Structure formats: structure tokens, C-alpha cells
Amino acid sequence: RFSQDYLWVVPLSGHSVVAASVPLEHSHRHRLSLHRHRERTGKEGQVLHRSKRGWVWNQFFVIEEYTGPDPVLVGRLHSDVDAGDGNCKYILSGEGAGTIFVIDDKTGNIHATKTLDREEQAQYTLTAQAVDRDTNKPLEPPSEFIVKVQDINDNPPEFLHGPYYARVPEMSNVGTSVMQVTATDADDPTYGNSARLVYSILQGQPYFSVEPQTGIIRTALPNMDREARQEYDVVIQAKDMGGHMGGLSGTTEVKITLTDVNDNPPKFPQSVYAMSVSEDKVSGEEVGRLKAKDPDLGENGLVSYRFIEGDGMTVFEITTDTDTREGVIKLRKPVDFETKRAYTLRVEASNTHLDPRFIAWGPYKDTATVKVMVEDADEPPAFMATSYSFEVEENSPDGSVVGRVHAKDTDVANNPVRYMIPRYTDVEQFFSVGPEDGIIKTTRPLDRETLPWHNISVSATEIGGHHQDTKVRVNIKVKDVNDNAPEFATQNEILVCENVSPGKLIETVSAVDKDEMVHRQYFHFSIAPEAVNNQNFSLKDNRDSTASIYVTRRGFSRMTQDVYFLPIEINDNGIPPMSSTNTLTIRVCSCDSKDTILSCNVEPYILPAGLSTGALIAILACIVILLAIVVLFVALRRQKKEPLIVFEEEDIRENIITYDDEGGGEEDTEAFDIATLQNPDGANGFLPRKDIKPELQYPMRPGGRPVANSVDVDDFIKTRINDADNDPTAPPYDSIQIYGYEGRGSIAGSLSSLESVTTDSDLDYDYLQSWGPRFKKLADLYGTKDFADDNS
User: Fold this and answer.
1) Which residues, other chains included, contact 410 with Cβ-Cβ below 8 Å and sequence gap of 6+?
2) Sign of torsion, CA 432 436 437 438?
3) Closest Cα to residue 226, out of 163, 164, 172?
4) Which end of the chain is more exposed for a tag (fewer CB within 10 A), N or C?
5) Which residues pair with 456 in a beta bridge?
6) Is the pLDDT of residue 351 over 70?
7) Could you tell me if 698 and 685 are in contact, meaning their C-beta atoms sit under 8 angstroms apart?
């Protein structure tokens, strides 16, 4: 059997054994181990039996990156069947056999001919076999063995994901973890220290440190302030061989950024701010701005402002501009230079978001003083009241005083003021105002019933200065005076039956008054003095502004009198009292037994007996229906279109002339009378028309007209065409010209269906025989003729 590393192995019980392949420096120890095994076997005097194997292999080793001048010896193979006479031949196959690994076929020595790199391939699997040199027959069964490439430290550590970016809050405690960096080494981690890495920091001290074994970066200094320095560039090194001398190293860069925390309070750049505002500014207008600076970012640097004290806290307000982080001071209400010329305010600026870790570093606020000076402005006059309300009695004479408005110049100059009423507020000019004293007067008597309120404006203009003006609303109420008499609320007629009973209530009347009704005021009704003695009707005052009308006689007659007039006097009991006489119209009507009114007119008594109102309505309805039928019939007759040319008799061309035999075409003039084509009504050369009235009568055109029996059809048609072209009374749009002659010499040939019978046609009309009796005539004309032609 084979042995390796030049170790000869003693056979056991006739079986060959191959020793394990070990490095040469361990061959002595291995030889001793085999020797002890042989002695132990001999002492026991027994043989160990096992199944025969052609090969027993362990691993060969070869160092990577060998750069010597000669091929490196990997090992030696030897079989116990090799007698050393050269008949045994060793063969090597597998990965790299013949290219990387070669074997001496006589001695079995294996050499590596190329430099190996473990990082490219860590091991190679080969197959060895011993064969007879002459016959190439196997002397031993083939077997596999492995050649492992032994690692050396030839690869430096690498950071695969660099450069790195990390963030850590400012003011973090010492030892706060920032991030972890990891390097990789392509060398064998199971062999030696080639892949054992140690981390160290080359740049970034004393701010940061790194754990040697894990690569975790931590803060090394307390209270690192972002506002002082925000970014740090840290360089981390990873070194193999446990960091000892001779190890390879790699580096990476870590950019560390300090994130913001709220560790700074807002601060006003100055302690006192001076501002000014004009007295003519309106509420909501901006007065000025101030800003407290906070170096923190985001919500940590948000600042809110408020007034904490001062004499202008009710006059001014402060808000925060979120975009600029400024405090904006605005007017809450207008200021007056003449009243107060300066205000002092105390403003506080504070952070809105506080970090509980740094509250002890507070307070996170600051204060400043704001002085606001009020500037004088030329203001318009000011009325003493925001609006005025006056009253004036109606019907007051013109020039009556309504009231007075007063305005003054609020400026220091205190210029005089002039008053006027804008015409658009008093279009009809009911009032006037004194230009200097502001007294409002009427220009005419006013009527409350026409217009109870007058809403006008009075303008006050400063004399001198910038002529500024201001307006005030004046509401004038017209007080009521009892100047209108009452009258009936409605003017309806009262209907009463002829057979009405005495004492029956026929109507309750009421009254209205255009004047205002005071409390407990009511209307009083009474019959006018001229009708007090009437014997027909009576009146009762109900003392609630209504009166009841009763009948005092028995029965009325429409034939005698159908309408009665009852004058009633109405008094309003006002101051001064006003009264009026109103006439109540009472009409007598015909009623049935149930007092249902049938008619209130006298005309039905004059109508003949037997004709009632219903009969008259029926007669009128029939007359209307007959008239509608007549109108509809006439309208339909007018819609019919009549011919433009009037003929006394029916045109002969509208007749259908039937021939029992077939014609001979255009040239056959014996089969019909040409006179039938002529219009007998047009023999005189004029056709009367209905739509126009010709102004001139054209005489018969001289020249011969073809006689009826003429056989020259061509001359006849040309004559007719010439007559039609020269006749202005026959419009071309409603005349029909009949051409019965086709002519000769056409390039396209004849298109007449009649002439096609005499031509040699390629069409087959035999199918007409199967179409039934209706097409028998066509079948005889075409199919039979074709059949006859075929027979001929």
C-alpha cells in the first residue's frame, strides 16, 4: 500500500496500510506511534483483521503564496506493490492535476508548480492510482485525497460599507454609543491570528473612542455643544494579527453629526425697543417687530411672545410670525395723540418646547421693554355721537327744527367745521342743515302715511387743513297726527234674498284708518243722519271697531228695486276726531227655499219663457263647435297644392295607351300616332298659368310644324325643343320634355332595353322558365328566342 511524507508503514496481517499524511516535522512522532502499535500487536499475539482497502488517505498541506524558484513538494505516494523495479506507475487526476499538481510516475512525489491562493480556492480534491507500466492495468483501486492550502496573512482587513454616517445628540453623556463599524478579513479565521482584528481610533480623539474588540464608537467627552461644533470626522483602523507588529490594517471614515437639543434659552439682542404708530392707523395694523434669538433648531428653537406688563396691554397685541420667529406688535384699538402720546410694554420671549433633561439649565425665557410713541395725524372731524335719532310731527311747516348734530376737529389746531347733507341720502331734499351750527330743519310738510322714517347722513368737513370729512347717520321718525278719516275695510256688496226675514243679520262691517291707533281707541259706527229714518235696514255698533247690519222689513222685490244704498258714518275718536261717511251697497237677489242665492240680476225676467240660462249656454256651445269645423275644413283645403298650369280638360298625355304587340323601336313610326305626343291645349302656342300673369303674348312662331302623321320624329322633337326654349310663359322648372328618339352615332352605343332584343347578347335567360306564370311573357320573349336561335 501507499505511504506518504516518506513514511514507510509496516504491513499488518498481509494487508497494506498507508499512514496519515502529516507535515515533515511531525514524521518522527508519527513513526513512533506506528512502532508502538506494532509492538502492542506482537505482545498480544493476535492479528487484527479488517476489510481490505486499496487506499487510506488523510490530507496534504501546501503553503499559499509560495514564491520559491523550484516547485514545492506537496508529498509522496508509495504502494507496497511497488518493488522498485520501475514496473509501478503512479497516475494523478482531479482538480488541478497536470496543471497545478504534477506527480513523478516512478517515485510518486507530488509537486505544486504554481503559486496558490487560499482566498481563491482553499482545497483541491485529487485521485491517485497505481497501474502497471506496461499494461496500464490497475495495481491498486483509485482513491481520493485532499490537498489543503495553508493560509498566510496576505489580506488586510476591509470595511465593506464605509464611509459611515452617524448622529448623536449634543450634550450626551460620556460613553454614549454612536454606532458600530465592522471590518472583514479574507484570511482563514481558524488558522493562526491572520483574521483576528483589533479596532483603534486614528482621528477623532479626544471626542470619541472605539472598543477594540467590537468596533463600537462611543462619546469620550461630556457636554459636546452642537452650537460650538456640529460635525466630526473620525477615522477608525482595523488591524489583524491581534493588533501585533506585522499585522495588516485597513481604515474607514465615520462622519458624526451632533443633533440639536433644547439647551439654549431665547435671548433678546437688546433690552429696549423703540417703536411709533400714527393715530390714524386702524385696528389690526402692524406697529413693529422684535426677535429673540435662539441658536437651537426646529421645535427646540421655537419662541412665543407675550406682554407681561405695561400701560398699553389693552391697546396693543403681540403675535408670533412662525416663518421668521419674530414677535409682531399690532394695534388692538386705535390710539389718539391728543389723549395719550406714549405707551410702555414689557415683552417676554420663551421656548414652547422644553427638554426635561435640561430644565435645570433654565430659565428658557428672556424679557425686553418696548416703548411705543403715538404720532400726530391730521384727522377728520369727530361727531359727539356715533349716530343720531330725532322725531318730527307730520304736517309740520317747512323750517321746523328736527334736531342738531355736533362735530369738532380733534387735532391740536381745532379748525372750524362745516356741515352738509349728501344729496344721495336725501334725494327729495326733505331736510336742510345749517352749515355752521349743524341744526337740521324740514323743507316741506312731511306725511307719515307716505314715509314714516327718513334715514339721512350729515357730513362734517374741516375748514382748512386737508379738508377731511366724516359722516354720521341721522334717523328721523315722523310722528303721527290724526289727519286721516276711517273708511270701510272692504268695499264689497252685501247680497240679501228677496224673502229675507225681518231682524236678520246680513253683514258685519269693519273700518281701517291710515293713522296709528292708540291704546283703547276704537271706531264708532252710526247711520248717516240723512238715512236715519229708513225703514229697510238698521245698524248696531259692537264697540269693538265693528258694526252689525240688520234687515228691518219683510221681503224685497227685485222688480221694484234691486239695489239699496245705506250711508254709514264712521268716527275714529282721535285727537282731533276724524269721521267719514261711507256708503254700503246692498243688492237684492233671488233665492230658493234654503236661502241659496240663485241670481242677482234683473235680465232673466225679460227672457222668453222656456229658455233658461243653461239652454242659452248649450246653444252658444253648438255654434262655437260648428264654426271651428268650418275653419278647420277651409284650412285643410288651402293646404292642397294646385298645379301651376290650368288645363280645361285632362291632358291626353296622362292616358295610358296599351299595345298588344311589341314595337319595333324608335324607328318604327307605324305602331303609334305621333299626334298623341302633342298637347292639344298648346296648339295655339300659349299655355295659361296660374302662378304668373304674362305681360306679353308671343305670336305663333312662323314656320311649318310637322303634321300628325309625319314619320320624321327627329324633326318633331327639334321643333318642340325650339318652342320650349323660346317660350317665356313656360318655366323650365315645372315642364317635362319627352324625348322618344335616341339618335345615331353615339360612341357608347344604344342603352335602350328594347333594342337589346335584336343584339347578340351573351346573357342566358333560360332561368325565366322556372319563375312561374308571372314571368311567362318574358320567358317567351327572351328564352324562347334564344332557344330558336340555337336550333337554327
Assistant:
1) 336, 338, 379, 381, 382
2) positive
3) 172
4) C
5) 474
6) yes
7) yes
Percent of the chain with pLDDT over 90: 35
How far is it, in rounded angstroms, from Cα 574 to Cα 591?
43
Counting the structural domains of the chain, the total is 5
Residue 246, pLDDT > 70, answer: yes
Domain C-terminal end among 479, 501, 528: 479
CATH code for the domain in which residue 183 is found: 2.60.40.60
> Residue 347: pLDDT above 90?
yes
- Answer whether 461's CB lies under 8 Å from 381's CB: yes
Task: Show the cell assigned to 716.
Answer: 318633331
**706-732 b/e (C-beta count within 10 Å ≥ 16 → b):** beeeeeebeebbebbeeeeeebebbee
Total Cβ atoms within 10 A of residue 768: 18
pLDDT for 522:
84
490-508, pLDDT tens digit by residue? 888 899 998 888 988 989 9
- pLDDT at position 746 is 54
- Do both 224 and 245 map to the same domain? yes
**pLDDT reading at 608 higher than 60:** no
Q: What is the DSSP letter of 379?
A: P
Measured CA to CA, the distance from residue 263 to residue 362 in angstroms comes to 8
| 706 lies in some domain | no
Do 588 and 556 contact (CB within 8 A), yes or no? yes
pLDDT digits (tens, 9 = 90+) for 723-756: 877 876 666 555 555 655 555 555 555 555 555 5
Following DSSP, what letter does each residue of 264-284 receive, concatenated? ---B-S-SEEEEEEETTPPTT
Grid coordinates representing 166? 452617524
Let me know whether 369 and 279 are in one domain.
Answer: yes
For 246-250, which contacts have Cβ atoms below 8 Å and span 24 or more sequence positions? 246/153, 247/153, 247/193, 248/153, 248/155, 248/156, 248/157, 249/156, 249/157, 250/156, 250/157, 250/158, 250/159, 250/183
Q: How far is CA 723 from the centre of its chain?
A: 77
Is the separation of the CB atoms in 455 and 475 below 8 Å? yes
Q: How far apart are CA 506 and CA 493, in angstroms?
A: 11
Q: What is the largest CA-CA distance in the chain?
A: 184
Q: Is 445 domain-assigned? A: yes
Query: What's phi and psi for 339, nearest 5 deg?
Result: -95, -50
| Residue given cell 347578347 in the structure block | 761
What is the extent of the structural domain holding 552? 487-599
Task: Note the pLDDT of residue 668.
Answer: 53
Residue tagged 515533515 (cell numbers): 24
Among 287-291, 332-336, 513-517, 760-764, the range scoring the smallest mean pLDDT is 760-764
Q: Which residue has the higher pLDDT, 472 or 87?
A: 472
Res 602 pLDDT > 80 = no
Residue that is last in its domain, among 121, 150, 179: 150
Do the domain assignments include residue 607?
no
